[in-house]
Write a structure and sequence with these properties.
Length: 216
């Protein structure tokens, strides 16, 4: 059970501390999403690993004709959809397997603030959140790693008492810069999605998983 004063670690660390390719990849992710340290990467990877594990297990149960698996599969897909990881309709269990840690990290409040053009850089977004300049549904949220749901995303805005509400504030991002940031991010995401889809397809082919296995 453990001591109630000390919560258990909610993420898994790498199995080996010195792996050059993994370390290089983690450094790139930390820089891309403006993370404080690699712990936030490992948390996203743990969430993603759990989703993938559930998807594989449900696919196996669906092939066995388990009626309860259909209900659980729908619940998993709906959860990913509410988190903004999958489209609202038309997703399957195979789509869960294609998700990456980047998809999880892009739903963090820090990433959403930057994507909405409320900050000029991803690191400024983190500072604005911790200093209380950002509201969600009219409530101040000071946790950069807060996962923003699809329903909450539209309500992410400046705190009404924040000086950033002044359009002439020297640290406000211009519409042109916001458009440029969005274009660069979209290009990077498209490239990453293409690479992830190719890798997932190769893994599925190796495991003998077909498209029909993921349909529910």
């Amino acid at each position: 059970m453990g001591d109630p004063k000390f919560s258990r670690r909610s993420y898994d660390t790498p199995s080996h501390p010195w792996q050059g390719e993994r370390i290089k990849r983690e450094v790139e992710i930390v820089r891309e999403f403006g993370l404080k340290n690699k712990t936030e990467v490992w948390k996203a990877q743990t969430v993603l690993r759990n989703f993938r594990k559930q998807s594989r297990e449900l696919q196996a149960r669906l092939r066995g004709g388990d009626a309860q698996a259909k209900i659980e599969a729908d619940a998993l897909i709906n959860k990913c959809s509410r988190m903004g990881l999958l489209p609202v309709a038309g997703s399957t269990l195979n789509d869960v397997l294609v998700l990456t840690e980047g998809d999880i990290l892009s739903r963090r409040l820090q990433s959403v603030v930057f994507d909405k053009g409320l900050s000029s850089t991803i690191n400024q977004a983190r500072q604005m959140i911790t200093h209380g300049h950002i509201h969600i549904n009219g409530h101040r949220v000071t946790v950069p790693g807060y996962i923003v749901t699809r329903e909450e995303e539209a309500s992410v805005s400046y705190n009404a008492a924040s000086p950033f509400t002044d359009e002439m504030h020297p640290m406000r991002i211009s519409p042109e810069q916001a458009a440029a940031n969005a274009a660069v991010k979209a290009e990077v995401k498209a490239k990453a999605d293409k690479e992830s889809a190719a890798k997932a397809k190769a893994d599925a082919d190796e495991a003998g998983i077909t498209l029909e296995d993921g349909e529910v």
